[in-house]
Design a protein that fits this description.
homodimer; 224 residues; 11 strands; disordered N terminus; DNA-binding
Chain lengths: 224, 224
DNA sequence: CGACCATTTGATATGGATCAAGCGATGTGG
DNA sequence: CCACATCGCTTGATCCATATCAAATGGTCG
């Protein structure tokens, strides 16, 4: 919504200097202008012109749609290193995005990326790889929605543990409602399932937002 | 599975001459070698090297995964004009594909497409557009799986009607089991739902495989 | 401390799965 | 040409996972 400042050489340099061990798309996509959003504020809305793509530096983002019946479906959670807003069909965003926690992102014009990709095959290849990974992610989401509540929650926890790379302690940035809207369940079911997993000694719910994985293989079994 | 003959200049020319009013990706992707498959035969299997991409000329194809618990999830149905097998993460197919009915496809090396895309920005752009459309399709599949049985079936019929472009008469190439595995339902539920839609005068089930849409707006309302 | 919001827990309802049987079309051998 | 087997589909009865409705608990921030 707030159009970020145009990409200028100095901001470009500044962004490049911020390059760090952000996950997998090495370096070429580490450009753009840093912009920050406060918790629960909108980054962009569905149907808005998709001029910019974003990469998370710190914090966390959810992308979602509001369905006709008022329910909200979360398409994905985006953690540091992740890109979002890039792959849109046509010129409008197909999802809304907002910051779950206070978040800083790098903003870059999609058009700029397109030009760069045209000029540098390496960048084009990276974009293509990213696209493949994104497609895979959405396909996995389809498979997730076919499973039982227990499998969905167990799978979600394992995925978050992997993505946050923090051993067995998973600090969830998102609320139960967010999780429910991602997994296609209700908050009650998510809560009950977590309680169930705790009774089964697979996890420990330290606080609502902090889960400790006690028995990964059990979780993996439940994930099936 | 049966590795198609290598792309040679004469087959290339032959394929180009077959160019016709196949749907949306105009012409540049209308190249490759025609190959035919009989009904219910495998085109490729999951985990096989993804050397080739395919475009349906005539017939129909399903792509699917077999899940750990033995269920089958159909990722999509591919009708004349559609491309499949192109977007794979890495070098292996992530889905299996087989012919639903007797089917002819154009086969082209993915590598060839990559080279062509590198050389011709127009082709690169077409591939990118296709990718965006594919991503959208999978995202829509996610949304589909959140709906009620009635909404899924109604939405499926509307989609098929649109894709086959045959007015109100929809000739389904696939079985109830295929539909169920696509919609994440059981055959019983699909069957009952169709009967229900017929009672509601929204459709007419002429034969098991031929559905006539009697009241699209009602269907659209049920699709929500 | 008190208010508010997120989460958990409890009781009940329900949509779709499962189990089981019947039916209709298609094809095959006698 | 018909009897019969087969396969895909429909219909029926029951069960179960998750939604829904409702209330209690707990954590956070003024």
């Amino acid at each position: 919504m707030p159009p970020p400042p145009a990409l200028r050489t100095d901001t470009f340099r500044r962004a490049i200097s911020m390059r760090n061990a952000l996950a997998p798309l090495s370096h070429t996509l580490n450009l753009g202008t840093p912009v920050s959003y406060r918790r629960n504020t909108e980054i962009f809305g569905e149907k808005e012109p998709a001029d910019y793509a974003y990469r998370v530096i710190s914090g966390s983002v959810r992308t979602y749609k509001i369905l006709d019946d008022g329910r909200r479906q979360i398409g994905g959670f985006h953690l540091p290193g992740d890109i979002f807003g890039l792959l849109e069909f046509g010129d409008e965003h197909t999802f809304s995005a907002d910051a779950i926690t206070d978040t800083t992102v790098l903003v870059v014009k999609r058009k700029t990326l397109a030009v760069l990709a045209g000029r540098h095959p390496a960048i084009a290849r990276e974009l293509f790889t990213f696209t493949g990974r994104e497609l895979r992610r959405v396909q996995d989401h389809v498979l997730l929605l076919l499973k039982t509540a227990q499998e969905r929650v167990a799978g979600f926890l394992l995925e978050m543990a992997e993505r946050t790379c923090a051993g067995n302690v998973v600090d969830l940035p998102m609320s139960r409602q967010d999780i429910a809207d991602y997994l296609g369940l209700t908050i009650e079911t998510v809560s009950r399932t977590l309680t169930g997993l705790e009774s089964a000694a697979a996890i420990e719910v330290s606080t609502a937002r902090r889960i400790v994985l006690r028995n990964r293989s059990a979780l993996r079994r439940l994930d099936s």
